[in-house]
Write a structure and sequence with these properties.
mainly beta, four-stranded antiparallel sheet, three-stranded mixed sheet, about 5% helix, flat
């Protein structure tokens, strides 16, 4: 954004829970703000209890604007029969997924069930070999994470209050078939 109306540096476009989408002077239109992961040596960092660490203040964690999007229409014809296709493509942009946030916390998503890397049901108690260890994470001192956190109920490993907002921001790129039609021209 180059500028907003006088005396305003930020215009809130959308806000819910722990995320906001903004038009902010000096930043691209549509920045997504929330808490981000803390990294140590390029890896996500966990605290002494094995939960993700996150930034203390909101930061830019994405942007809703794609790098580009386009449509490719094409028609194939043969003996009076025509097939029309329209393919849409978008590269870039980000989305904030409330469904992922609530799907994980309520245990509906596949990653919240099954066996952990020790071959035990992750929803079993940690002292019985269950629990979930956040993959490829380290402690603040850079040593590999070896802590399993409880995953058996609401408020544990997949609870959004134990996670940065950035955990629910995803790339919005896509390729999809937008339109398909088949037609036939009768001979005259």
């Amino acid at each position: 954004m180059i500028k907003l109306f006088e005396g305003v540096d930020n215009l809130l476009i959308y806000s819910a829970w722990d995320v906001s989408i903004n038009a902010t002077v000096g930043e691209p239109y549509g920045t997504i703000r929330g808490t981000d992961f803390i990294y140590t040596n390029g890896k996500k960092t966990v605290d002494e209890n094995g939960y993700y660490m996150r930034t203390a203040t909101d930061t830019v964690i994405g942007n809703i604007q794609p790098d580009w999007n386009m449509g490719i229409p094409t028609t194939f014809s043969w003996r009076g029969l025509s097939l029309y296709l329209l393919v849409d493509i978008q590269k870039g942009g980000d989305i904030y997924s409330v469904s992922t946030k609530y799907g994980q916390v309520t245990g509906l998503y596949a990653e919240t069930a099954g066996e952990n890397d020790r071959g035990v049901e992750m929803r079993d108690p940690v002292d019985e070999g269950g629990g979930y260890k956040f993959p490829e994470t380290v402690f603040e001192d850079g040593t590999p994470n070896d802590i399993y956190v409880p995953a058996y109920r609401w408020g544990r490993a997949f609870y959004y209050n134990n996670s940065p907002t950035a955990r629910y921001v995803f790339d919005a790129s896509y390729v999809k078939l937008r339109e398909l039609s088949i037609s036939y021209s009768l001979p005259s």
